[in-house]
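Hi W.,

Here's what went into the run:
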Amino acid sequence: MKKMTGAEIFLECLKREKVKDIFGYPGGVVLDIYDELTRHPDIHHILVRHEQAAAHAADGYARASAKVGVALVTSGPGATNTVTGIASAYMDSIPIVVFTGQVPTALIGNDAFQEVDIVGITRPCTKHNYLVKDVKDLAYTIHAAFHIARSGRPGPVLVDLPKDVIQARTVPDFPKEIKIKSYQPTYHANPRQVKRALEMILSAKKPVLYTGGGIIMSSASEELRKFAETLQIPVTSTLMGLGGFPGDNPLWMGMLGMHGTYCANMAISETDVLIAVGARFDDRITGKLSEFAPHAKIIHIDIDPSSISKNVVVDIPIVGDCKDALQQMNALLKEKESQDWAAVRAPWLDTVKDWEKKHPLTYAWSDTVIKPQYVVQKLWELTKGEAFITTEVGQNQMWAAQFYKFKRPRQLMTSGGLGVMGYGFPAAMGVQVAQPGATVIDIAGDGSIQMNIQELITVVENDLPVKIAILNNSFLGMVRQWQQLFYEKRYSSTPMRAPDFVKLAEAYGAVGLRATKPEEVEPVIKKALETPKPVIMDFRVEPEECVMPMVPAGKAMHEMLLA
Amino acid sequence: MEPRHTISVWVDNTPGVLSRVTGLFSGRGFNIESLCVAETMDPQVSRITIVSTGDEQITEQIIKQLHKLINVVTVVDLSEKEHVEREMALVTVKAEDKSRAEVLRIADIFRCRVVDVSPHTYSLEITGNYEKIGAVLGLLKNHGILDVVRSGTLAIQRPKKD
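Here's what came out:
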């Protein structure tokens, strides 16, 4: 084999990892990589307008495609701008690899121009990170980065590439397989634990399945559906788990937690066996910890042992891939004598249905003002529930989660753990690149859309017909809601002016539409969906609408505010 | 006081690993009472001995989170096993007139070594477990400790005796 430069090795590694699309922004120390890119037309580079967007786009791409998302940026500010995107991917366990340029090794530590210790900065918010100091290590490191990002509990990996390493030459040694002796995730769930868990589930009177992003990451939706339907167990999920179980299935109770449904939160409060699958008992789910699922024995299936018994002490821990564990349970069920589970479960399911009927997700209709929930409902209706949805963070995110009934996994991309305003639009860009023909909608607020609005030109330039639905209430709505409920309506720094989004869209070469009355909502959405270009829909909605139900922070789940 | 745990961590001997370990402790609010780190017989592997305080749930989290680091090879909670612990302290203590003999007597009783002598001071090397070192320092305090430096705890598991 002949000698190759670091830049050549870099691109060869990307090809070996079957990377087709990367999101990036060039700069001084990565010039050689960008130069090499001109000789690789098969790798499609999308030039973002801010590096944060590159990381979020890679995240959205990864979620929508089930592949590893890739971002490429320069050193210093290029690198630091990706940190929010990396931290978000870390919290949500999304496999991305971020390549950052670095000053030449001889200058590292000298406070050189555009030098920053990005490996140090991102240590606590990456699954792992690398500084490559020798071109001989480059190929191995890149493949190891992809391996770590996608395996086990997935997550972001950062690889820092000094300029001299990119320029140096070597005869590369491309590893056929990556084996890291100190990193061997447990995929296969312990059969004895699975059996114990199943016995507990079979003897339960009021079981509940509480699922999370792990179902989506391990592609276990089918197994979950089979398991729930066989045993007639009602299902709720976290924000990250939405789509992991069909939103139109009769066993579906809706999301749980702070803005979860009455039904789901009551079921958690009453259940005797709680089966947590690929979820991590986040504080937005549990509310007051000491009163979470007070009557339940808890079974927890998770690939990350550190998620188990972190917040809530678990009775039966199962470390392993959700899919594997559910497959084992389904197989064990087949061997058992069949029972009429529908009859066994009827009293419990009746109780659940009663809760659902008593307090369904709802809102007060208005003939004159657009209700934000109505917009989301219409989006769901007019896309037949098929669109890829991304969200920003705040009220828009919760209404999207409540009123768009997700059918399938990988349909919703949202910054669940870190809660990044400005995530949704660049993520939508990534989704659209991964799913070129699909309808992709970012459900946004007038506050959060402004955090990465610069990407409008990126979607226009790259013909990515992303749709943005702004629930424009001239407030930072969720913070305002807390001020209304807990700070006696002192609206400190939450009223905000927004630009004219229609003109803004036009200035960027996108299409801008506006609805100010309820009857305009449907035509605007229809028009947007028919338009093969990026569209901003500016919905002027009820300014002081609240997301309900709501479990106030620190309260128990049954202490919901309902309206 | 919360229970002390002595945890042995085998890690890749590569740059930045110690920072990953200590960063994990500070980032997640775990305590480090003491920390020792050096190469093992295999130069590619270092061994870190960490003494931490916390209840069972915290200790379980510490061990799981350490395991999660890619560069961590093995983690053992030695507190759960038969093990021996040692620390070392170097202490310079005032020793004048009649206290010279008394300091030496304390040193002798606790099997300390005198590592430096000046007309007005002794410097002693104390080895032992955490409690013993505390006890010696407590006694020497009456004579005036001028300087003291303590190592972290080292710990080794006792082999099975059968």
